[in-house]
Amino acid sequence: MPTDSSKYYHGRPASMDELVELIRDRLWREGKSVRYWLKKIREYRDMAWDAEREGDKEFAYVYAFRAAVLIFDKMPKLEDFRELVDIHRKSNLAEHGRQLIELVNRLTPQLRQEYDEWIQEERLKVEAVGAAPTSL
Questions:
Q1: Where, if anywhere, are coiled coils annotated (predicted)?
Q2: Choosing a second label site near 14 at 20 to 30 A (CA), which of 24, 81, 123, 131?
């Protein structure tokens, strides 16, 4: 059954395309320090896990995906990442990233199903209105 708790789309489940747009929205800012991005990763990770515990799949998905993108794609490209982050911290980041990817992979089919069910319900409503007898 689709959820009515979407924080983003006013009572309807978000599509995967809509969630991707939320993930991309202001994800990366040039010129920020490694320390800034480590703090952001921690913030996004914590928000994802909190949202998952509270049953907010969309919020959990968006913030888990954001944190994972920062860990695996953005951070390694920073010039001072290799110098400022020790091997132990990199290992911890990779483990957190793996857990976040697992969360994203677990939520993806659920979110798709909720959206597909909502679409089907809306189609049935439209068909019911179209099939209703009209009296003149």
A1: none
A2: 131
Token pair, residue 99, equals 């857990």
- The rounded percent of the chain whose pLDDT value lies above 70 is 88
Instruction: Give 4's pLDDT tier (boundaries 50, 70, 90).
Output: very low
Supply 74's token pair.
């953005």
User: Which two three-digit tokens encode residue 61?
Assistant: 């998905």
The per-residue pLDDT for range 13-27, each reduced to its tens digit, is 999 999 999 999 989
- Give per-residue burial for 7-24: e unless 16+ CB within 10 Å, then b: eeeeebbbbeebbeebbe
d(CA 54, CA 4): 14
43: CATH: 1.20.58.80
31 lies in a domain? yes
